Amino acid sequence: MSKIGKKKILIPKEVKISINGDCLDIKGPYGDKKINLDTTLFEVNLIENRELSIKPIKNNDDIKKMWGMNRSLLNNTVIGVNKGYEKTLEMTGVGYRAAIKDNSLNLQLGYSHDINFEIPPDVKIIVEKQTRIKINGSDKQRVGMVASKIKSFRPTEPYKGKGIREKNEHVLRKEGKKK
């Protein structure tokens, strides 16, 4: 049995869920989301718009694996439309800067040219300081993908620690060359 799949999803007061066949419509203060769920494999129960549970119709190893994953996807969507997700990136290095110009994030990362990253429409990016970037959105995967893409422009190097990293991310530092 799936330990995660058995847990019920508690729905906050601000979130409204409606089930239309295979589609779940989840509405909240941070946006609306639609999730397609295979009703031939899973049964979804909504109890007084306060609790949501998902149970498999058949029991085999493949369905048990998907049970926990689908429950996690539903839970992440409920949290996303209620509170949203946020990641904070920090840039370390001399001359590393970030700024927002029009609908793109302008990054100066020590290359001979600036990097312009187009901001997706479902994600909000805020530059607090010149070296700190906040990424907000209602989709956990989308926020993580945008943060990962921005980090890939200048990964943190292990000797001086220069580059882009998430807040509170530990980077293993190496000792330099000895004489």
What does this structure look like?
Helices cover 22% and strands 39% of the residues. By secondary structure, it is of the alpha+beta class. Strand 8 (97-101) and strand 9 (104-108) form a beta hairpin. The model has no long low-confidence stretch (mean pLDDT 88).
List keywords for this structure.
179 residues; alpha+beta; Outer Surface Protein A, domain 3; 2 domains; 4-stranded antiparallel sheet; 3-stranded antiparallel sheet; 3 helices; 13 strands; 39% strand; elongated
Secondary structure elements and their pairing?
Blueprint: H1 3-6, E1 9-10, E2 16-20, E3 23-28, E4 31-36, E5 42-47, E6 51-56, H2 61-82, E7 85-92, E8 97-101, E9 104-108, E10 115-118, E11 123-129, E12 132-137, H3 140-152, E13 163-166
Antiparallel strand pairs: 1-6, 2-3, 3-4, 5-6, 7-12, 7-13, 8-9, 9-10, 11-12
Share of residues in strands: 35-45%
CATH architecture of the largest domain: Alpha-Beta Complex
Largest beta sheet: strand ordering:
11-12-7-13
- How much is the radius of gyration in Å? 21 Å
Integer average pLDDT: 88
CATH superfamily of the largest domain: Ribosomal protein L6
CATH class annotation of the largest domain: Alpha Beta
Largest sheet data? 4 strands, antiparallel
Helix run count: 3
CATH fold description of the largest domain: Outer Surface Protein A, domain 3
Instruction: Based on Cα principal axes, name the global outline.
Output: elongated
| Helix content, binned percent | 10-25%
What is the domain tally?
Answer: 2
Q: How many DSSP E strands?
A: 13
